[in-house]
Structure formats: structure tokens, C-alpha cells
Specification:
The protein is mainly α. About 70% of the residues lie in helices and about 0% in strands. The protein has a domain of about 140 residues: Tetracycline Repressor, domain 2. α1 crosses α4, α5 packs antiparallel against α7 and α6 crosses α7.
């Protein structure tokens, strides 16, 4: 059966999705242009036509993954509910115990970014946007009188640091932190940063 002819944008999207999957499975160092081409049944030349080097393909794949994560984060934070509920939903989704996927991808990306300026730019931009989105909602909650937080940006940074650290532990060392314990720590940290009792995180809306 002949392959369906895709537009340039559709083909790039297909290649980037395949690259993300291969990076998660093999790691950045081991993944090859041939691996991405093989999984899609296309030639190496086609991949190189869209991305002239492996480095450019990897950077674009991480950019695609970052955009996907940020889109979902903004969806959670944009819900029509209290700032407290939006923050808890976002933090629990992002945590390695939640529904966010791809932690192996990002841990791999952080390591490679130490040596690759293009990838470092991608990971730094994702980090900045994540913290900015959390900071904005924390500030909204403070303005609405939902909770007290004298330093929304600091709270966003500390929460992100906790979540990233848990991700490294739970992804790299299976069983290092039980899932239930990690969720308790995440809720404890969120309640502490917002100056509320932990029970307030799950209290029904008024």
C-alpha cells in the first residue's frame, strides 16, 4: 500500500513525534537519524531534508515536547475555578506521580543541555515559561484573597525544584520514593507555599 502523501508541516510533525519516542527509548547519545527513519519506514535522506543534522532534529524534537507540555499546563491553569484548585491540578499533573509523560526525555535533555547550547536554550525557555505560568496564578490567588504568599516567583521556583528533584529520583531509581509519599510531599509543599492547611487543597468549592 502506498504511503499517504503528507504536507511539509505534517511530515515534520510526524518526524518530530518519532524522534521524541526514539530519544525516550534510546537516549540522545544513542539515537540515530536511521532510527527515526526506520520507525516511520522512510529514508534517511527524507529526515535530513527536513532537519539537516541530528543536532537540529534533537533540538526541534525537544521544542515540540516543550510546546506540548506548556499547552497542557496552560489548559489546566486556564480552567474556570479557583486559583488553588488550578495550582493543585497543575502541580499534580507535572509531578512524576501524575499523568505527565516524558520524564525520561527531560532528564536526558537536561544532561545533554550541559554541552549543547541549542538544547540548553530549549530547556531554559520551558523552565522560564513554566515558572512564569505558576507565578501568575499564585499572584491571582493572592489578589483574590484565596491564600497568602509574599513571594509568588519564589514559590514557583521552589515547587518546580521539588517536582524536578522527585522526577529524577523516581525515574532514575525505581522504588526510591513511593508514589503515595511523593503525592503527600507535593501537597505539603503547595499548602506551605500558599499558607493554607493541606485540607484546603481538597475542600469543596463554596
Amino acid at each position: 500500500m502506498a504511503r499517504v502523501r503528507l504536507s511539509v508541516a505534517e511530515r515534520r510533525e510526524e518526524l518530530l513525534r518519532a524522534a521524541v519516542e526514539q530519544i525516550e527509548a534510546r537516549g540522545v547519545a544513542a539515537v540515530r537519524i536511521a532510527d527515526v527513519a526506520s520507525v516511520l519506514g522512510v529514508s534517511n535522506a527524507l529526515v535530513l531534508y527536513h532537519f539537516s543534522t541530528k543536532e537540529k532534529l534533537v533540538a526541534a524534537a525537544f521544542t515540540q515536547a516543550a510546546e506540548d507540555d506548556l499547552a497542557h499546563l496552560r489548559k489546566l491553569l486556564g480552567r474556570r475555578t479557583t486559583a488553588l484548585r488550578r495550582l493543585r491540578a497543575a502541580v499534580r499533573w507535572y509531578a512524576p506521580t501524575g499523568q505527565a509523560e516524558g520524564w525520561r526525555l527531560w532528564i536526558e535533555g537536561w544532561a545533554v543541555a550541559l554541552r549543547e547550547p541549542a538544547l540548553r536554550e530549549v530547556t531554559q525557555d520551558l523552565d522560564r515559561q513554566w515558572k512564569a505560568a505558576l507565578t501568575e496564578v499564585v499572584a491571582e490567588g493572592v489578589a483574590a484573597g484565596e491564600f497568602v504568599c509574599p513571594d509568588p516567583a519564589g514559590a514557583a521556583l521552589r515547587l518546580t525544584a521539588l517536582l524536578d528533584g522527585l522526577a529524577v529520583q523516581m525515574t532514575s531509581y525505581e522504588g526510591a520514593v513511593p508514589r503515595a509519599r511523593a503525592l503527600e510531599w507535593v501537597d505539603d509543599a503547595l499548602a506551605r507555599e500558599l499558607g493554607v492547611e493541606r485540607e484546603a487543597l481538597t475542600a469543596p468549592e463554596r
